[in-house]
């Protein structure tokens, strides 16, 4: 048996070696960044000044969370596999020298079947008769001697117990068991290993392809998130711009009115100042008359003062009446503010669509919309009624239909219809059932469903019934985007793409689930 010392083994050893202690993983744990290290190595990192992942990916190690880190069971299983395949890889399992029982037995003599330390190897095999013995490192020991019969080598393979056995084993413990020679058993094992190698290579190819697809899915997910974030930013920047424009309009209107009112007040202030000056003049003139003793001068001043005084009083009265200006008030309606807040809270929404990531690509997963009536007793339509039955849709947003599912025990042909908002059939597909038991049947019916479209199903012949619940003729809500109303039409035998059936209300709400 070849030991684990070739190039492939070196690669395997690298996979199961901790990058910190450079030894095989002991209780391997996975950090949030997906890197794996021994638990003790992670604990030692956590007590350093900067407890981060050694690979410098900015992952911080929190000492309180270390015990909660998940175990890397794949790495753990790989270490156990290597140890079981070649125990000599475990540095703790070296046997002591079988000669001195003091030093580790680093060498193995195929002929003596003993472990020897370096000194005993030289001293024991210095005898000429023993110099022909084959000495190999303990790590390359072939374990060729039977554990129960130490003088006998393994020569056979027990196909019943799946064990290596010697001649004495076949004579006693495995007396009635089937066996093969080591050569034949090894050839058979090689054949099986070659098949497993092919399977492993196929799995490796698939995983490599899956890895590429997953990386692409990560990149697409990140790009999609960036795209939708940009859309959100655009919507709210637009909203902010509209609000800013409205604010500027209101402020401009306020400032224009302020300028107009200030002009009026400035004119009024000029008139007041002028009249104050005139009042001073009038006051001086009156005092001058009062201080004069000349009758002629007094009468002249009185005549002039009387003539000007009337104009003076008239202007004063106009000034005293005041001036009309506009004082603007920003009317804040709390109800409008609440309505606007409610509109903003409903502005946009995040909707998720499930996708499956497989090795050959990423595909969206259909969602199922159950439009069956949720309450009431389930009944069966009468077999004699040959109606096309279904639902009319009231939608906020259109969707794409892939198939419809109905619960029925009709054995025969099923026909599905999509009728547009103008009442014309635009899609028609069929499905066949050979089972007369009550079950859900899928009818592949693909097409866009828009507001006021109708989806119906019809069976032209065959025995059986639909499951339904009795309801009313009103629209009932399925979710916040969709409401349905039960509909039916007769003479479905003439219904085809382009025809316009006479669709009427009905209280028969058949069980129907849409694949969208």
UniProtKB/TrEMBL annotation:
CDD domains: Bbox1. InterPro entries: TRIM45/56/19-like, Znf-RING_euk, Znf_B-box, Znf_RING, Znf_RING/FYVE/PHD, Znf_RING_CS. It holds the Pfam family zf-B_box. One of its GO terms (molecular function) is zinc ion binding. Residues 186-213 form a coiled coil. Residues 92-138, 141-182 form the B box-type domain. Keywords: Coiled coil, Metal-binding, Zinc, Zinc-finger. Residues 18-54 form the RING-type domain. The keyword Iron-sulfur does not apply. This is Uncharacterized protein.
């Amino acid at each position: 048996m070849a030991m684990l010392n070739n190039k492939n083994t070196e690669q395997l050893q690298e996979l199961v070696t901790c990058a910190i202690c450079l030894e095989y993983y002991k209780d391997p744990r996975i950090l949030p960044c997906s890197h794996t290290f021994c638990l003790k190595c992670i604990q030692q990192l956590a007590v350093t000044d900067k407890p981060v992942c050694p690979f410098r990916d900015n992952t911080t190690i929190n000492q309180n969370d270390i015990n909660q880190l998940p175990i890397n069971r794949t790495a753990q299983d790989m270490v156990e596999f290597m140890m079981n395949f070649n125990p000599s890889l475990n540095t703790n399992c070296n046997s002591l020298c079988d000669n001195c029982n003091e030093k580790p037995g680093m060498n193995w003599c195929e002929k003596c079947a003993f472990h020897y330390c370096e000194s005993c190897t030289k001293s024991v095999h210095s005898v000429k008769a023993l110099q022909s013995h084959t000495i190999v490192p303990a790590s390359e020991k072939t374990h060729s001697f039977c554990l129960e019969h130490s003088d006998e080598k393994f020569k056979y393979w027990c196909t019943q117990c799946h064990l290596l056995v010697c001649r004495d084993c076949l004579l006693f413990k495995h007396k009635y068991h089937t066996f093969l020679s080591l050569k034949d058993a090894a050839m058979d094992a090689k054949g099986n290993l070659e098949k497993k190698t092919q399977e492993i290579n196929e799995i490796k190819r698939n995983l490599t392809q899956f890895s590429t697809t997953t990386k692409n899915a990560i990149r697409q997910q990140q790009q999609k998130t960036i795209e939708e974030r940009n859309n959100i930013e655009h919507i709210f920047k637009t909203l902010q711009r509209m609000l800013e424009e409205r604010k500027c309009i209101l402020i401009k209107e306020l400032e224009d009115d302020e300028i107009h009112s200030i002009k009026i007040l400035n004119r009024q202030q000029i008139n007041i100042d002028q009249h104050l000056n005139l009042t001073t003049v009038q006051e001086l003139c009156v005092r001058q008359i009062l201080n004069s003793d000349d009758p002629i001068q007094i009468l002249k001043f009185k005549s002039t003062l009387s003539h000007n005084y009337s104009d003076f009083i008239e202007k004063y009265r106009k000034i005293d009446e005041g001036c009309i200006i506009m004082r603007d008030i920003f009317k804040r309606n709390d109800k409008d503010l609440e309505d606007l807040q409610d509109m903003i809270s409903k502005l946009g929404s995040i909707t998720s669509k499930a996708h499956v990531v497989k090795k050959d690509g990423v595909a969206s997963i259909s969602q199922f919309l159950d439009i069956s009536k949720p309450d009431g007793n389930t009944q069966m339509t009468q077999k004699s009624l040959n109606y096309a039955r279904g639902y009319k849709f009231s939608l906020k947003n259109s969707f794409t239909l892939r198939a419809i599912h109905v619960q029925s025990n009709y054995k025969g042909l099923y026909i599905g219809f999509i009728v547009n908002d103008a009442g014309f059939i635009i899609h028609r597909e069929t499905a066949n059932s050979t089972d007369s038991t009550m079950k859900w049947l899928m009818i592949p019916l693909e097409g866009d469903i828009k507001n006021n479209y109708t989806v119906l199903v019809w069976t032209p012949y065959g025995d059986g019934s639909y499951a339904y619940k009795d309801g009313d003729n009103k629209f009932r809500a399925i979710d916040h985007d969709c409401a349905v109303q039960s509909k039916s039409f007769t003479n479905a035998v003439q219904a085809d793409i382009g025809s316009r059936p006479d669709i009427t209300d009905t209280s028969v709400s058949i069980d129907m689930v849409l694949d969208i």
